[in-house]
Amino acid sequence: MAVADVLKLIKENDVKFVDLRFTDTRGKEQHVTIPAHVVDEEWFEHGHAFDGSSIGGWKGIQASDMLLSPDANTARLDPFFDEPTVYLTCDVIEPADGKGYDRDPRSIAKRAEAYLKASGIGDTAFFGPEPEFFIFDGVRFNIDMSGCFVEIESEEAAWSSNKKYEGGNTGHRPGVKGGYFPVPPVDSLHDIRAQMVLILEELGIPVEVFHHEVATAGQCEIGTKFSTLVERADWTQTLKYVVHNVAHQYGKTATFMPKPIVGDNGSGMHVHQSIWKDGKNLFAGNGYAGLSDMALYYIGGIIKHAKALNAITNPGTNSYKRLVPHYEAPVKLAYSAKNRSASIRIPHVASDKARRIETRFPDPLANPYLCFSALMMAGLDGIQNKIHPGDPADKNLYDLPPEEDKLIPTVCASLEEALAALDADREFLTRGGVFSNDFIDAYIDLKMEEVNKTRMTTHPVEFQMYYSL
């Protein structure tokens, strides 16, 4: 969409406001809104000034002036605001040199795409994430000096079978690990997901499938089509926005936390990836599961750098409540066709055009711009240095003899471990100026605040384990 098309969209729909959106380091979209009459071709050229010092992990107050540069291709009518509003996804620009801000996730993703082309390896990277999420009826939590608690409210939850509800308890609900995927009324969220899907498609994001996921209490997935790195990250942010707001309209609440429920499946974000050049899929070949040597080397790079990647692909302390060995989580750093116990899977496909790899350890807490860029940079390192991943793992990795189990490496067990791994193994991310050392240092500092906050907060389970000792 050209700038003229955006101006036409504003005029034809009597748009009152333009909402400018960008993504912070943690992966949360932020926004600022201006009257539509301000927007013209000159405004698109100069951008919108804002204070970057209030964004976590960004500039200090001594150097806070930043610019939002709107991407005309992202213009859409917002489906939730009362007044007609067009939203635009923006890059964050340094006013001094007119370049993408060093710590802006979308600018990092753009530099990653440029690096791929400059490397000569390929010209396009395709990504297809599968973010899972929960829809609850409500959630209550509190943390203060007197103690802490969390309580999830869900009429669909297995634990609600004994509760009294106005109009009666229907008794139809998925049990623990029983949500994949019975028809309604056991699946109580079909209509909500359908509404999310209709809005996503109105916004130009093609949907391929939607369904209830394995966990009780409303775990869901909406599968959307693959696209290029930056656009697919844009779409992921829009998907989160739609999911949160449709749930809100229904009087419910949605979360992309990896592990909100104890004792049931967590939410992952499996990421499908392939590299193309001149319209040809470079991951298709005559090797294992129809892969090329390049695809195998790409896998080798991800396995080599997996622990450092964890700091970006699994960026919360809660992420490691999901990544626990022997609980059907993709913790084993191995690859396999069909075998879902490996952290990298090669899906069965009908043609070489669809040939790809699927990295299964990321979760939807990840900032998609950073996640996809880091995965690609690790994979490119594997290609450049011909890092072969070894033999595939076609056994059930959850049920290996101890002597075999200990030979297969695993992902990190905590965010603190992952941040230490990123600190030690960062050079592959900095090639081509994609990630800077300054950004990585700031990212580690920001995430260590979360580690320390969790470390210093007494957990209720500690009372259960230690109170009477």
Question: What would you note in describing this structure?
Answer:
By secondary structure, this protein is an alpha+beta fold. The chain is 32% helix and 22% strand. It contains 14 helices and 18 strands. The strands form three sheets. Strands 7, 10, 11, 12, 13, 14, 15, 16, 17 and 18 form a ten-stranded mixed β-sheet that branches. Strands 1, 2, 3, 4, 5 and 6 form a six-stranded mixed β-sheet that branches. The protein has a two-stranded antiparallel sheet with strand order 8-9.
Report a brief summary of the structure.
The protein is α+β, with helices and mostly antiparallel strands.
- Count of strand segments: 18
Biggest β-sheet strands, sense, barrel? 10 strands, mixed
Number of helices: 14
Gross morphology:
globular
Helical content class: 25-40%
Task: Indicate the low-confidence ranges by residue numbers.
Answer: none
Task: Please give a handful of descriptors for the protein shown.
469 residues, 10-stranded mixed sheet, 6-stranded mixed sheet, 14 helices
Task: Detail the topology: elements first, then pairings.
Layout: H1 3-12, E1 17-23, E2 29-35, H2 41-46, E3 48-51, E4 65-70, E5 76-77, E6 85-93, H3 105-119, E7 124-136, E8 138-144, E9 147-153, H4 190-202, E10 207-212, E11 219-224, E12 227-228, H5 229-249, E13 253-255, E14 269-277, E15 280-281, H6 293-304, H7 306-313, H8 319-322, E16 332-337, E17 342-346, E18 357-359, H9 368-384, H10 402-405, H11 415-424, H12 427-430, H13 437-455, H14 460-466
Parallel strand pairs: 1-6, 16-17
Antiparallel strand pairs: 1-2, 3-4, 4-6, 5-6, 7-11, 7-12, 7-13, 7-14, 8-9, 10-11, 14-15, 14-18, 17-18
